[in-house]
Amino acid sequence: MKALVFQGPGQTAWQDVPDPAIKDAADAIVRVDAVTICGTDLHIVKGDVPEVTPGRILGHEAVGTVVEIGGDVHTVRPGDRVLISCISSCGRCSYCRESRYGQCRGGGGWVLGHTIDGAQAEYVRVPFADLSVHLLPSAVESHDAVLLADIFPTSYEVGVLNGKVRPGDTVVVVGAGPIGLAAIATARLYSPGRIIAVDLAESRLAAARAFGADATAGATEQPEQLVADLTDGLGADVVIEAVGVPEAFEMCTRMVRPGGRVANIGVHGKPATLHLEDLWIKDVTITTGLVDTSSTPMLLRMMAAGRLPGGELVTHRFELGQMEEAYDVFSRAGDTGALKVVLGGPQHDVVASAAGHETDGA
């Protein structure tokens, strides 16, 4: 099959690799129908995630069709259309028993495209398939569903829930890329008083306004002063960092009010300075986190009901074999206006079987 292979910092190739095979009875082999590129993938290519070694197939966000299952898989069968979660769960360790799947110690967690081969390929092996894939209803198209593999649960759990967004809050989202936009969309579920988006690119600020931001500011246009002006000098109740660079994190800690919360989502490849000389007295809570995807079933129901934006986040579509072109477009988002790029994703025709599963229609 063909797959995108990491070959070292700054180097990838769409090349021939062996087909995946069942290695454990809990595995499923899934044909990739739609896959996307994550900002974390760009960090990997830059060399910011040293655990990813040359030869690794990248990618952890995909929708596909099950083609083979191991003997211990009971919730899906060949022919099922499924969402592949970015997080795998053994279901047995102490973290999984607390629904903290991102910290799984039984061989799961973030493994796809990280410590095992990922989903930017024609086929992918998914471990712990019973807990790591979700059957898709016919009402949800692949191009929409793929956004539930990572960005929506990540922004919701690591940003909105960790930040404890409440009705009436002033929420600042620093970084209006896909994660930031999903944070805006899911923060609105809690009726904050206002949402302020900060980004360098005007195209992304425009997208932030379309997704529900009440005010926007360019990162070079004194966003801290805007936040101060809108809060009578107090600062924001919740600040969500969705970039992953030191300057963004440090800006967040300057914009939060005493007693407020900073929720860091961004993947950081360099140290950031924590100014405790200013923060120690302010009762500020700072959270970090890797998504657990425990919210995915709920978010999937919301998307099926039309309560979450889907395709509006997808700005560019490619054939699966155009992986290198898609990476180029996504990595130059400031020039191309790219938000989320999706590869593959043919239209599906499904019917419900008597057992409640869905199968490809004739």
Automatic annotation (TrEMBL):
<dbReference type="InterPro" id="IPR013154">
    <property type="entry name" value="ADH-like_N"/>
</dbReference>
<keyword id="KW-0560">Oxidoreductase</keyword>
<dbReference type="Pfam" id="PF00107">
    <property type="entry name" value="ADH_zinc_N"/>
</dbReference>
<dbReference type="GO" id="GO:0016491">
    <property type="term" value="F:oxidoreductase activity"/>
</dbReference>
<keyword id="KW-0862">Zinc</keyword>
<comment type="similarity">
    <text>Belongs to the zinc-containing alcohol dehydrogenase family.</text>
</comment>
<feature type="domain" description="Enoyl reductase (ER)">
    <location>
        <begin position="8"/>
        <end position="343"/>
    </location>
</feature>
<dbReference type="InterPro" id="IPR020843">
    <property type="entry name" value="ER"/>
</dbReference>
<keyword id="KW-0479">Metal-binding</keyword>
<dbReference type="InterPro" id="IPR011032">
    <property type="entry name" value="GroES-like_sf"/>
</dbReference>
<dbReference type="InterPro" id="IPR013149">
    <property type="entry name" value="ADH-like_C"/>
</dbReference>
<protein>
    <submittedName>
        <fullName>Alcohol dehydrogenase</fullName>
        <ecNumber>1.1.1.-</ecNumber>
    </submittedName>
</protein>
<dbReference type="Pfam" id="PF08240">
    <property type="entry name" value="ADH_N"/>
</dbReference>
<dbReference type="InterPro" id="IPR036291">
    <property type="entry name" value="NAD(P)-bd_dom_sf"/>
</dbReference>
<dbReference type="InterPro" id="IPR002328">
    <property type="entry name" value="ADH_Zn_CS"/>
</dbReference>
